[in-house]
TrEMBL record:
Pfam family, one: Kunitz_legume
Organism: Protea cynaroides
Compositionally biased residues, Low complexity: 69-78
Signal peptide feature range: 1-21
InterPro entries linked: Kunitz_inhibitor_STI-like_sf, Prot_inh_Kunz-lg
Claim: Signal is one of the keywords in the record: yes
Bias (Polar residues) ranges: 79-88
Name listed for the protein in its UniProt record: Uncharacterized protein
GO-annotated molecular function: endopeptidase inhibitor activity
Region called Disordered, residue ranges: 59-88
UniProt keyword terms in alphabetical order: Signal
């Protein structure tokens, strides 16, 4: 009987130590939802469109600004144009291999016993307020914040959203490549803002902002602003 008590005590101790060792980085964060109410998944294609009503334009696509060397992300001015699909990948995918939510831990453990190396479904879910790479689905490079000059009425520096970043490798050298999705409204059709406020490098100075729309020569460019955020929603892209 004493032996059984001892074994039981050791087992409890082992479990306690194990649960201490596992952290739950995403357990307090909500999944980002698409317009059908499904959780956004890493690597899947979505149209990133305006969530504001009439006259606020459609989806995002790539175009060239006159005064810039790099391709810049714009928003179509037509409400009916969904633009080019984009995909998201969390920073954690490339440097944490332990992303398990508390509520799914036992499910995961059982799953892992029977199917070795099966990734947890949560590993692929995009959560609010986590560092993400954004890319156009058919391109290898990711979105990047780049300072450039706005042409009119007078020239001043703006931080445009361009492409050209290397995916992954969260840290000081990739600071400009990380965005976060944050919920604006709490209605059943949630609207989101895209924030630029990376946490991939704690010691790097960063001026946070929200992705907004900057009109210039009849085109609507995505730029990081201190004041205005633009409301977006995610429409799942269906492959033809
Ligand atoms: C981004 O937008 C949110 C919501 O409107 C606002 O609370 C926040 O201050 C903005 N952030 C920056 C850095 O401008």
């Amino acid at each position: 009987m004493q032996i059984i008590n001892l074994i039981f005590s050791l087992l409890v101790l082992a479990l306690a130590l194990q649960s201490q060792a596992i952290s739950w980085p995403h357990s307090h964060e909500h999944a980002v939802l698409d317009t059908e109410g499904n959780e956004l998944q890493a690597g899947q294609a979505y149209y990133l469109v305006s969530a504001a009503r009439t006259g606020s334009g459609g989806g995002v696509a790539l175009d060239r600004r006159h005064s810039s060397h790099s391709s810049t992300v714009k928003q179509h001015s037509s409400n009916t144009n969904l633009g080019s699909p984009v995909s998201f990948s969390p920073a954690s995918n490339s440097h944490d291999d332990m992303i398990i939510r508390k509520d799914s831990f036992f499910e995961y453990a059982v799953d892992a016993m029977f199917h070795q190396n099966t990734p947890s479904p949560q590993e692929r879910t995009i959560h609010e307020a986590t560092d993400l790479n954004i890319r156009f689905s058919d391109m290898p490079v990711v979105w990047q914040v780049q300072e450039s000059h706005h042409s009119s009425p007078k020239s001043y520096a703006l931080r445009y959203v361009t492409i050209g970043g290397q995916p992954g490798h969260p840290g000081s050298s990739t600071m400009r490549n990380w965005f976060k999705i944050k919920r604006i409204s709490s209605s059943s059709n949630p609207e989101y803002r895209i924030a630029y406020c990376p946490s991939v490098c704690k010691s790097c100075p960063v001026e946070c902002g929200n992705v907004s729309i900057m009109e210039e020569n009849e085109k609507r460019w995505l730029a990081v602003s201190q004041y205005r955020e633009f409301p977006f929603m995610f429409v799942k892209a269906r492959r033809a």
